[in-house]
Amino acid sequence: GKTVTLASSSGDPAVDAAIQQLQALLYKRGPLGLKGLERGLDHISRGAGAVDRADLDTVLGFCGVTLGEEEASTIFRALDRGDAVVGCAELVQAIRPTLSGAMEAAVREVFDTLEDPTFKTGAVEMEEVLARYRPGRHPRVMEGQMTEGDAARELEDGLEGVQGAVMAKDLLAFYADVVAGYQLDANQLSDMLRGTWGLSGRN
Questions:
Q1: Secondary structure (3-state) at 68
Q2: What is the Cα–Cα distance from 133 to 125, expressed in whole angstroms?
Q3: Helices first, then strands: H and E counts in the chain
Q4: For 97-127, what is each residue's pLDDT tens digit?
């Protein structure tokens, strides 16, 4: 079947393979699989924004993810700042797949429609984003696989942690998780975006 693969950025095949394995384990749980890891990292780091090797194992266990010792160590070493800790944000960023150019453009089009056309600030109030979202047009809702409430919570949980207003990078991160969690191709993402954000009729 289709798989969403990591855009190789480390230059080390062993690191990329380990991260792809962790991606598969997390996103097997759906679009919010990585968000669960992010929450766990935030909790165990107590706001410090960094974890040590033992913390990483604890969080993986908390998330119900069984990653091999060698793979976990490979990822940790690749991101180690040199003081035996790894930044939580850097770890999440390394795991989250990169959207293709076409997918990124489609998400940016959604953000452009959310912004006030007369006063573009690069940010949209969270309330406005949630108000404009149409969870009833989520493909999984239309197929009877989830409720409208579930679809609305998916967006709310995906944007959890966003401070104040939503920026394009926040929406891009959310949809990178959605694409990986649902194994969407560009056309499927485009259909989802048109339906849930009321962009019907656009190409």
A1: coil
A2: 13
A3: 11, 4
A4: 999 999 999 999 999 999 887 888 899 999 9
